[in-house]
Amino acid sequence: MTIEFAYLSLDRSDATLPPEALDCSANAYASIDDLFASKTKIMGIAIDTADAHKADTALRALRGNPETAVKPIFLFTPFEGDFVGLADGVAASMAEAFGQASRIHARLTKLDESLFEDREAIFFRLLAFLYARPGVSYEPVQHWSFSTLYRFSLVDALLGDEENSALWLRTLANRGLLQQGTLKDRIRLCPQCEKAHLNFVDICPNCTSIDIVQKPFLHCFACGHVAPEDAFIEKGYLGCPNCSARLRHIGADYDRALESYQCQACGHVFEESDVTAHCQHCGTKSRVTDLLPHNIYAYEITEQGVAAVKTGMLEDVYALLDRLDNINPKVFEAILDWLLKVNRRHADVSFSLIGIRLMNVLELTETIGRRRITELMDGFVSRIRELVRTTDLTMRNDRQNFWLLLPKTDVPGSRVVLERIIETQQYTRQEEGVALDINTVRFCAPDDALEGESAPLLLARLSGGLE
Question: Which pTM value belongs to this model?
């Protein structure tokens, strides 16, 4: 099937390629419908229009179509508006657009496109977009009409869902496929409906009425009475309404009080009003301290997310290592710490620790495919299980690293176990000539023990030898 670069000339009915595009393996289209009807495999798209509405419509249509959703798309005209973030940038020429699109396309060709072209493959589409654009993240865009003030316009377009894009991103983050990037803002949400459109109203701290007014207040030194300034004015002079003292000199007879508000409902005088938040969505009235703080982050792809989109499995292929009946890392460290202490007191009580790192699982996936890498990993784990005795303990503290703790195992005994582990590599060799590549490290106590070294320090030191 021919793979071409698409030139969308939306301002002309007879679309023709610009002269500089002749060397770009491109074809011209006058509309989105013409492009979709062509059934041509597209490597990238350039949109040529001076009309912001046309550009907006085209971008949303292209990002919303599974076949073009993650393809590189460039504009020729700089616009303003959140729809601009749906494009990969503004190019000065067809040659520039073609060159930048080629780099993104090269990364996309490493993936099984059927994963993210399926209309149901939401997660893969989100991951594939970021994988093809290293350093790019899903950025929140401030939008006054949205219920939480921020939206992810690009994610909205990719999913065709304007209400739940943040939820999808959080779901991927909870599964370790995305991670929170830069903190962009912090907002407050209604505790009832979790929406952000709030009206903050000053109220009387005594009766909660909103009918409060700011007034100048005076303070009589003679009796200490405090009241609004107009209450002190009587027949053209200042006098205290409480003790009738004449107030002639500010600072000597009276001064201006700190209290500056009065409630028209209950007459209460106060310096600072309370504030209540009125939700414009559900009508709930809340104290400011009861509002829900909500951080707004950008989202980036993780190593696990890269592995998922490369292997086509949202469940981590490395999770097959958990079939070794691994124990909790904290429990493993506690047992290892105990063995180190026992060994310091009783040097004849030896034990060994073997670390194993899988080096090329993702690379093998690209070569032999998802199904065969799963079978390969399954076979490798089964052979390791055959080597593990009932008294041995296993633990995985990293996606690619796992550990074998071998009690009552000296240097010769650990060497035999390590050789057998290394031998399992030959059973993973494929007809293409590739095989699972592993790195190993071995520790034997008391021979390799360092004075005062704890289990976490020991594991950290040995992990350096697995890189």
Answer: 0.64
